[in-house]
Amino acid sequence: MTGLLTIVFCAVPLLVIILIIVFHKNFVKRQSKYLKNVPGPKPNPIFGNMLDFAVPSHQFFNVIESYINQHGMIYQIYDGPLSSMLIILDEKLIEYVLSSTKIIEKTDQYKYFHNWLGTGLLTSKGSKWKKRRRMLTPAFHFSILDNFLDVFNRVGDIFMKQLEKHEDEDSFDIYPLVSLYTLDVICEAAMGTSVNAQTDGNSKYVQSVKKMCAIITDRNFSPLDTRLYPLTLNFYRERSAVKVLHSHTDAVIDRKIEQLKNCDEKNEELNDSGTKKRMAFLDLLLKSTIDGIPLTREDIREEVDTFMFEGHDTTSSAISFAMYSLANNQRVQQKALEEQIEIFGGNNKEARSTTADLQKMKYLELVIKETLRLYPSVPFFSRKVNEDFEWENSTFPKGQNLLIIPYMAQRNAKYYPKPLEFNPERFLEIDGTNPYRYVPFSAGPRNCIGQKFAMLEMKSTLSKVLRSFELLPSNPHQELKLAPEIILVSKSGIHISLKKRK
Ligand code: HEM
Fold first, then answer.
1. What is the Cα–Cα distance from 136 to 131, expressed in whole angstroms?
2. pLDDT for 273
């Protein structure tokens, strides 16, 4: 009996491995039939190329860079024995993919978000995505953005007070403070409720977002079969993180429902001129219908979770890297400061930016663009091919996964001379170049819905920071350890030093 059991225990896994190898060989043959001219590293029959990614997350970009050096701007890696990903850095192919109205579905990797974000706007597909996108677009229309300036100014004042607590320190990590600030902004601006994250120091939500991003990154790059996930520690970590995240968003929704009950709806929905007012994001979710049916509590929560995450973590990454870049590039900081003085006059710390002021901040806009070139908050994103298409003698087959990596494309010397130099003026000389070489907000029908909101928030915040503080490099200098944990982060923190302006 024991002998039989031993044979079964050995034979079954062996058979599975043999089958995987056979299927993998067929899959590779099929891929090379379609993708004739597409190079790539040789895959392992069980793990594909994933063993190369068994390194700390801040070394992922090194692996990708070494592939680019060997295989060029379009190459294929195997993210499992039976699955492959085409890495695209070529601007023309990026243009083809992102401008397509057909290639708008995300890859299966986005399913790792489902326990947390459900199938909200970021992860949904097909008609659900189309209807939700149509419904939510007015909440970020430029005509409503003016309403958010007061939030940026008010919450920004608290942020300045939090920064003041660190003035004259030789070195401190700005990222945790900026994360709490941007969480307060998105909650007040989009959800219409205040969570006072900065003053309460309540970072449980922010900590859980970090935990989830690290877990999803692990799962994305893991060579282990996803069916083994419930046996891992991450499975239990994810459960407790999701509990914290959902209880936070539930509280925000409940508070808003309570507020709506207590206010005069007629006044809420009309402008001073009596015309219909555009509703803020959460009001829109609570009051709108799709095909005549109101959204369920679950529908609402998945969108609140999605926008709360996308709306705060992306901007906190961008603002932190912009502050770091200003601290480490005094010429750029001086020029950006002079622009602020020109707009607001000499003693300008207390001034509150208006829309007209923000529009005048042309140099600051270049600084933000250059920050997002070197440090795109979303360092990569993917698409799935929905029907075969031809590209340079290859056929990209239906179902093929595509990965676009703005982080690598935007640091490529072919597109940007001296790519690692922080030089905002480079954007003054880009006339005639393909706009798809620069896609920090993605592009086309599935681009970032919050792009204009994000630009205003970043401008308003950096304007305040520049007028209040001199930003200096940390002492001792702290090297960034950049890692794509869904959002671009620095594993060594983002350290600078601050001196209050007189
Ligand atoms: C610096 C700030 C930001 C950057 C760099 C950024 C970047 C991006 C990128 C690259 C995508 C495409 C992701 C993909 O295809 O998987 C995206 C999508 C999205 N972003 Fe942003 N984002 C920023 C700020 C925001 C803000 C402030 C909000 C909300 C207020 C937001 C909400 C979203 C949503 C909901 C999507 C999914 C859109 C869809 O699939 O239709 N983002 N963002």
1. 9
2. 43
